[in-house]
Design brief:
mainly alpha
C-alpha cells in the first residue's frame, strides 16, 4: 500500500491545506479500521482452525473407542485423560503463539 508521504512526495506543501489534512486524517482512520478488521478475521480463522482440529481429535477418540471395544486384541484403548492434557497444551500454545487473549 502506498503511504501518504509517498503520494505527496515532491508536493509536501499540499499536505498543509485544510481539506487535504482532513482527507489524510480520514485515510488514517480507515487504515486503522482495516487493520482491526483484518486482525479480527485472522483470529476468527485461527479459532475456526482450532475447533476443526478439536473436532477431528474427538472423532478419532470415538472411532478408537469403537474399534477397541469391537477388536480389543487389535486396537488399544486411547487414554482420554492424556488426550485432554494434549488438547489443553494445544490450546495454550495456540493462544501464546497467536496472541488470542484467552
Amino acid at each position: 500500500m502506498t503511504s501518504i508521504h509517498q503520494i505527496f512526495e515532491g508536493n509536501e506543501h499540499l499536505m498543509d491545506l485544510h481539506p487535504v489534512e482532513m482527507l489524510i486524517d480520514y485515510c488514517r482512520e480507515l487504515e486503522g479500521e482495516k487493520f482491526e478488521r483484518d486482525l479480527k478475521e485472522d483470529k476468527e480463522h485461527i479459532y475456526k482452525s482450532m475447533l476443526q482440529d478439536i473436532l477431528v481429535s474427538c472423532d478419532e477418540l470415538e472411532e478408537s473407542k469403537l474399534l477397541s471395544e469391537r477388536y480389543p486384541e487389535l486396537y488399544k484403548k486411547m487414554d482420554a485423560e492424556e488426550m485432554v492434557k494434549n488438547l489443553k497444551k494445544y490450546i495454550l500454545d495456540m493462544n501464546r503463539t497467536s496472541n488470542l487473549g484467552l
